[in-house]
Write a structure and sequence with these properties.
alpha/beta; 2 domains; 487 residues; 15 helices; two-stranded antiparallel sheet; twelve-stranded mixed sheet; globular
Length: 487
């Protein structure tokens, strides 16, 4: 195949220009006939999963795509609506190093653990109806290498970074779509949350630049979506002080002292600035016992199914607040980390791995979030990338839980403001079932023949990341936005 083709060959402009819908379908069929003889499929359909009763009520495909020395694992869930017309997302979970399975089971996918009746053994799965896959197809990618079931064939391949991960994810997307050409014609979005706020804009930029250079295949990019996104490391760190003050975690007096003595900069403070160092020490004392993912929830130890019981007992005795509390069947002792333990138990089960077509021996132990990656954070800010993309006529959704202290809403609102967009819809509440679910504002930017739209939304009471805490509300937010309705 040629490396470059005219944009027309993969464009969906037929119906947009007024041609009848049947012509669009005929063109789709022609495209498939051209591409299919060259396709080598890497994925396999999964109809049954251990722990789930009966056949899955949605199409699930899993597999690996080779990118350089890396074998990147994915879960593909086809839209339960109209997959020939509904958009498709490449979805990355944050970390870096958190498996996209976490996004499926805890945030936006059509499955959840039956935690209320768990009594040991293999956790049970049940269908979750308010999944984003009801109205869009999702490729949940384990990236970077070392995440979930993704691995490298060589020692050197385990070394990665922000820029390398973005390039690998971009190459994965191109190859996956070549293997699944029926999705080349639907609208494409890049999405992710938390630390993926760094890589998602970088991947989006690569798609834009390749399309403008007429690189084959043309990807029908429509926009991107970010949840609680890391964007600028310095901005995010400084915003936590403002957030702590707004949430009444620190006093007015301490906040004023911090601002004055630290000159509004709280990172890499000069040790000789004793007033600032002392104020920061008081600040750390005030917030150190909080669960920063959600300041309203109990702080518990990081969950792992391989936790040494003796270590846990000793930790509980020496520091009683640092232990995993009881399952949710004892609500007053509930801890969110119990949910995470179930993912370790389920994903490390050999029957589960066989059902998912995981390559034997590739990954010794599955981890929800791998904290031992050989990873370099070589991109400190992507604000300039957002500024570049704001000239490209894209649709963007950015959302924050308003009780998230990992990526405070203060930071997100600050970098959005720095883009100098025009406010098209003023700040207002948005509702689910007649109740305020959060607040939203919409921005617009006109440039040449393109119009850029950015919708920003908070999720009231939400943590990091918001869909894990308010799954139903975030589903309503997503399905309104993806169908071009106001929130």
């Amino acid at each position: 195949m040629a490396s470059q083709v005219p944009k027309l060959l993969t464009s969906t402009s037929f119906t947009a220009c007024g041609a009848p819908k049947w012509l669009s379908y005929c063109w789709r069929l022609l495209l498939l006939l051209v591409l299919l003889p060259h396709v080598a499929f890497s994925g396999q359909i999964v109809k049954y999963l251990p722990g789930f009763d009966g056949e899955l009520p949605f199409k699930l495909e899993t597999g690996y795509v080779s990118v350089g020395d890396s074998e990147l694992f994915y879960y593909f869930i086809e839209s339960q609506g109209d997959p020939q017309e509904d958009p498709i997302f490449l979805w990355l979970t944050g970390g870096p190093g958190c498996s996209s399975f976490s996004g499926i089971i805890y945030e936006i996918g059509p499955l959840e653990f039956d935690i209320n009746r768990y009594k040991g053994g293999l956790p049970k799965l049940k269908y979750y109806p308010y999944a984003w896959t009801k109205t869009a197809s999702f490729i949940f990618l384990d990236a970077p290498v070392g995440t979930g079931f993704s691995y490298s064939r060589t020692p050197q391949g385990w070394l990665t970074s922000d820029s390398e991960s973005a390039e690998q994810s971009y190459q994965f997307l191109r190859q996956w779509l070549l293997e699944h050409p029926q999705y080349l014609l639907v609208q494409l979005f890049i999405g992710g949350d938390s630390y993926s706020g760094i890589t998602v804009p970088l991947i989006t930029q690569k798609v834009v630049e390749a399309n403008e250079a007429m690189v084959y295949p043309y990807l029908n990019l429509k926009g991107y979506l970010l949840g609680s996104p890391a964007t600028d490391q310095l901005l995010n760190a400084n915003a936590k002080i403002i957030f702590a003050h707004r949430m009444a975690l620190i006093s007015d007096q301490l906040y004023e002292k911090l601002k004055t003595s630290c000159n509004d900069s709280y990172v890499d403070v000069d040790p000789s600035n004793t007033a600032c160092v002392a104020a920061l020490g008081t600040y750390e004392m005030c917030i150190k016992d909080l669960y920063t993912n959600d300041i309203l929830e109990p702080s518990c130890v990081f969950a792992s199914h391989r936790e040494n019981p003796e270590t846990v007992r000793r930790s509980a005795k020496e520091n009683p607040k640092n232990f995993i509390l009881s399952p949710p069947r004892i609500p007053e002792l509930w801890c969110r980390n119990f949910n995470y333990v179930l993912a370790y138990v389920w994903s490390n089960n050999l029957e589960v791995q066989d059902a998912l077509h995981v390559r034997k021996g590739a990954v010794s132990t599955w981890q929800r979030c791998n904290q031992t990656l050989s990873y370099t954070k070589d991109v400190q800010s992507v604000i300039d990338v957002h500024r570049y993309l704001s000239n490209k006529g894209l649709e963007v959704l950015v959302q924050n839980g308003d009780r998230d202290m990992v990526v405070p809403f203060v930071a997100t609102q600050t970098w959005i403001k720095s883009l100098n967009l025009t406010i098209s819809d003023e700040w207002r509440p948005w509702f689910v079932d007649g109740q305020v679910a959060g607040y939203t504002r919409k921005y617009v930017k006109y440039s040449q023949n393109a119009t850029f739209y950015l919708t920003y939304a908070t999720v009231k009471g939400g943590g990091h990341t918001a869909p894990e805490y308010y799954r139903r509300e975030c589903y309503d937010m997503f399905q309104r936005w993806i169908h071009y309705y106001p929130l």
